[in-house]
Fold:
Amino acid sequence: MNYNVFVIGTAILLIYIVVDIIRNKTRNLLRRVIFYSFIFYLLHVVQMTTGGITFPPQKNMNPTFQMIPFYFVGDLFNLYRSNGLDWFFWNSFKLTFLNFLLLMPLGVYLSLLFNVRSTFKVSVIVFLVSFTLETLQFTLTYFGMIMMGREFNVDDLLINTLGGVLVYMICECVKHMIIDRHINEH
Structure:
C-alpha cells in the first residue's frame, strides 16, 4: 500500500495549527502562518520527490546513480536529434524545468522567513536540502519503500540549487528596492 506523505503530514499539521492557535491566539500570527506554509511546502516537496511511501516494502528495487554533471543537456540534445520535438523531448524538458522550480519557494522562505543574509549560506542550505532529497529517494528506493524506483541524480542537485538560489537573489533585490524606496519617501 502506498501512503501519501502530503495528506498524512497535512492532517498532523492541521492538528498542530489548531492547538497552536488555541495556545497562542494571535501573537505573531503572520509569522506563524508563513511558517505553517513552509511546513506545508516541505510536505509537498517530499510527496513529489518520493511519490509516497510504500509499506510493506517491495523486493528487488535497484536504485541507480547518475553522477555526470549536465548530463541532461546531452540527453535533451540526443532526444532532439533522434526524434525532434516529440513527447520524449518535451517530457525530459518538463522534468528538468520542474526540478528547477522545486526549490524556488525555499529561496523565498530563506529570504523572508529565516532572514538568511548570505548568498553563499543560501547556496549551501539549498544544496543540502536537495542532497537530502536525492539521498532520501535513493535510500527509500533501496529499501523498496518507493514504488517507482528513483535514482540519485547529480543534475537534480545542480538544477534544484540553481532555482532556489536564483529566487533568493531576486527576493533580496526586491527587498532592497522596497527598503530604499521607503527610506527615500521619508
